[in-house]
C-alpha cells in the first residue's frame, strides 16, 4: 500500500464540501483609517453571520476609534448622523436605532470585538453597507455587504 505524505493527508482533512459556507469574516482596521476589506459576502445558507473586528493599530479609541456598523445602503447617512449625535458614550450608534442591523463597540488599538446577526435580516437583492461611525471615518471606512447563494 502506498503511503500518503502527511501534507496530502492534511489537505484532505481540511478540504470542505462545496456547500459548506463560512458564516464569519475576519476584518482588521488600523491607525491608517481603513478596513482590510471593502466587500463582505454572506451566504444565505448561514443562519447567523459573525464579524470579528480587530483594531491592529496603536492609537486610543478616542483618537482613532473604529467600529463596524451594518445598515441598509439608503439608511447609512441617517444612521451615521444619529450616531454622531449619540456620541462616544454610545459608541457613535444611536441606542435602538432601527436602521442599524448590527454594530460592534468602538475599539482602540489592540482591541477586538465580534458581532453576530441573523442572516434573515438581509433581504434578497437588498443593498447593504458597513461603515465606521467614528466621526470623519465613514468616507474612507466603508464597504458593501452582499447576500450570496
Ligand atoms: Zn474608524
Q: Which range does the strand content fall in?
A: 25-35%
- The gyration radius over C-alpha positions equals 18 Å
Total count of strands? 8
- Give the H and E element order: HEEEHEHEEEE
Major sheet size, sense and barrel closure = 5 strands, mixed
The spatial strand order of the largest sheet comes to 2-8-7-4-5
Category from helices, strands and their pairing: alpha/beta
- Terminus-to-terminus distance: 41 Å
Low-confidence stretches: 8-18
Structure description:
- The strands form two sheets. A five-stranded mixed β-sheet has the order 2-8-7-4-5, with no helix packed on it. Strands 1-3-6 form a three-stranded mixed β-sheet, with no helix packed on it.
- The termini are far apart.
- The protein is built from three helices and eight strands.
- The radius of gyration is 18 Å and the shape is globular.
- Residues 8-18 have low confidence and may be disordered.
- It has helices at residues 6-14, 61-64, 76-86, and strands spanning 24-29, 39-43, 48-55, 69-72, 100-103, 112-118, 128-131, 142-148.
- With 149 residues, the chain is α/β, with parallel strands linked by helices.
- The longest helix is centred in the middle third of the chain and has 11 residues, at 76-86.
- Bound molecules: zinc ion.
- Residues 65-66, 132, 134, 137, 141 line the site of zinc ion (ZN).
Summarize the structure.
The protein is α/β, with parallel strands linked by helices. It is built from three helices and eight strands; from the N terminus they run H-E-E-E-H-E-H-E-E-E-E.
Amino acid at each position: 500500500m502506498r503511503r500518503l505524505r502527511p501534507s496530502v493527508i492534511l489537505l484532505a482533512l481540511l478540504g470542505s464540501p462545496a456547500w459548506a459556507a463560512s458564516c464569519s469574516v475576519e476584518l482588521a482596521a488600523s491607525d491608517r483609517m481603513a478596513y482590510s476589506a471593502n466587500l463582505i459576502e454572506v451566504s444565505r445558507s448561514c443562519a447567523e453571520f459573525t464579524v470579528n473586528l480587530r483594531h491592529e493599530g496603536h492609537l486610543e479609541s478616542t483618537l482613532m476609534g473604529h467600529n463596524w456598523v451594518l445598515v441598509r445602503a439608503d439608511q447609512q447617512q441617517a444612521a451615521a448622523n444619529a450616531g454622531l449625535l449619540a456620541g462616544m458614550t454610545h459608541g457613535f450608534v444611536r441606542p435602538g436605532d432601527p436602521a442599524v442591523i448590527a454594530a460592534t463597540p468602538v475599539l482602540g488599538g489592540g482591541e477586538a470585538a465580534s458581532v453576530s446577526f441573523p442572516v434573515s435580516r438581509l433581504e434578497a437583492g437588498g443593498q447593504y453597507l458597513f461603515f465606521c461611525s467614528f466621526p470623519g471615518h465613514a468616507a474612507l471606512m466603508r464597504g458593501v455587504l452582499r447576500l450570496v447563494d
